């Protein structure tokens, strides 16, 4: 019962944050209304370079797990929605992502190009690094290769070392203090479904919650670190409940 109360309070907190945030600080449709959509223009843009970095971090431990794929898919939706031709933009961003998962170009080189684009804008440095660190922590374990890559990206972005280490340590701490595992009854309640529901219904509920609570690169603009950390924990709780239900249904 304690877990259910805790999750209900946390869910209400995130719902309030999600609904109360209605202004983009750095990126908006207005900013991109005259953007000419092509692969070259997108891959050389700030957000295109960021997508390339996401690909590098996602593949740093050798694989892209299911939850990472969910978050990255939502990221494509959110970024492409800013541009005049969303579907064309999304298709190109996916192409950029897939190419950089396999390319030999270093994350440091991409980050250096991004640093030039954002001209040491501290807010953007913080925003980009926050998302990349969050992505690395989303499976609860940050590999040595992921940690080394994140540090290299932060350095190439000229991101303040103290701010980087503080952000990393905060995510590490919140993972260590993550809420205990829910039982199967709590898992169904957390996703807002019942044991009699089909996996199709449960999957739709899961995806809706992940979309609602994930700390994406666009909607996190102007948010403080606590937002990203708590959103990461909530996303993990939703994913844990979903995985528990999948195993229970087998």
Structure description:
The structure is a single chain. The protein has 250 residues and is mainly α. The protein has one domain. The protein is 70% helix and 0% strand. Helix 3 runs antiparallel to helix 6, helix 3 packs antiparallel against helix 8 and helix 10 crosses helix 12. It is globular.
Gyration radius, to the nearest Å? Answer: 18 Å
Q: What summary fits the major beta sheet? A: none
Oligomer: single chain
- Tell me the domain tally: 1
Q: If you average the pLDDT, what whole number results?
A: 82
Fraction of residues in helix: over 70%
List the total number of helices: 12
Coarse structural class: mainly alpha
* Count of strand segments: 0
Q: What fraction strand?
A: under 5%
Elements, N to C (H/E): HHHHHHHHHHHH
Distance between the termini: 26 Å
Q: Runs with pLDDT <50, length 5+?
A: 1-25
Shape: globular
């Amino acid at each position: 019962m304690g877990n259910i109360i805790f999750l209900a309070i946390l869910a209400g907190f995130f719902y309030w944050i999600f609904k109360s945030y209605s202004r983009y600080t750095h990126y908006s449709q207005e900013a991109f209304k005259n953007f000419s959509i092509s692969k070259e223009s997108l891959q050389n843009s700030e957000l295109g370079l960021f997508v390339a970095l996401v690909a590098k971090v996602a593949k740093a431990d050798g694989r892209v797990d299911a939850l990472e794929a969910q978050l990255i898919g939502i990221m494509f939706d959110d970024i492409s929605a800013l541009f005049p031709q969303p579907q064309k933009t999304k298709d190109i961003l996916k192409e950029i992502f897939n190419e950089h998962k396999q390319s030999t170009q270093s994350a440091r080189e991409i980050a250096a190009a991004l640093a030039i684009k954002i001209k040491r804008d501290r807010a953007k440095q913080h925003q980009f690094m926050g998302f990349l660190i969050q992505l690395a922590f989303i499976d609860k374990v940050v590999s040595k290769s992921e940690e080394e890559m994140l540090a290299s990206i932060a350095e190439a972005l000229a991101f303040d070392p103290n701010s980087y280490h503080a952000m990393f340590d905060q995510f590490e701490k919140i993972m260590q203090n993550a809420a205990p595992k829910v039982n199967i009854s709590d898992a169904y309640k957390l996703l807002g479904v019942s044991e009699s529901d089909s996996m199709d219904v449960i999957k739709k509920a899961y995806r809706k919650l992940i979309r609602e609570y994930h700390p994406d690169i666009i909607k996190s603009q102007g948010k403080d670190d606590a937002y990203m950390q708590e959103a990461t924990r909530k996303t993990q709780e939703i994913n844990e409940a979903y995985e528990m239900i999948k195993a229970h249904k087998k």
